[in-house]
Here is the input.
Amino acid sequence: MEKYIIREITKDEAVEFIHAYHYSKILPRLTKHYLGFFGEDGLIGVVTLGWGTQPKQTIKKILYQDDVTTEDYFEIGKMCFAPSLNNNHYTGSHIMSLLVKWMKKNTEANYLYTLADGIMGKVGYVYQASNFKYLGSFKTTVYRDKKTGEKIHPRSAKQLCIENAEWENKNKVFWLTHDFMEYKGLEKINGLMYRYILPLNKKARKTLNKYPYLEYPKDDDLAFYKRVDKGKFVEIEKPNFDMNVFEYNYQKY
Here is the structure.
């Protein structure tokens, strides 16, 4: 097995690599560390560490503890490998081991948290191979442009919600309505996200040992639903998205 090294890289280096190889070109806003993994042929992987849109609420909701803060954890924002390493869970777990060693040496975090994007057909095999604790799934919703295949996260739909409210003579809407989406050529799709967390020290491991054991999800656990009428969804096959279209999604790097 080829040996890899890990070191911090610049944001520009990380963005260039992610734009070249990751299915999603949009980076999280709250990123603290950009980490590069290097092999004989140079940069072969990038992992970003930071937090999601609700950092404090996320960790408190996961651990059910009021005294935990954002300093207690980092979340993987992006994890991207060169195409030759994709779906190689053994290499992925080796890189994850390097990441954990780096975190223990360079941060004070107690946990490494991440999500597997089930709506993109991913259940988190690399995290399973790295012995992350599985904390269950939750429903996620995205919009899709029927014509272009663009995947639109609800957080990116602020302007669409304003237009939707005006279209229906309402003061405000928080979710795009079915009739408006039909008018705009959009569709609403529900799927799953899978939560994983890894303790980085004995105290954190002891805390997580109190949580019930849950079986790791597999491909058969993936589920996708499309809204076909007001309040009515039907199960569908895995949806396809064109992640290179940015008509509605605003990119800021």
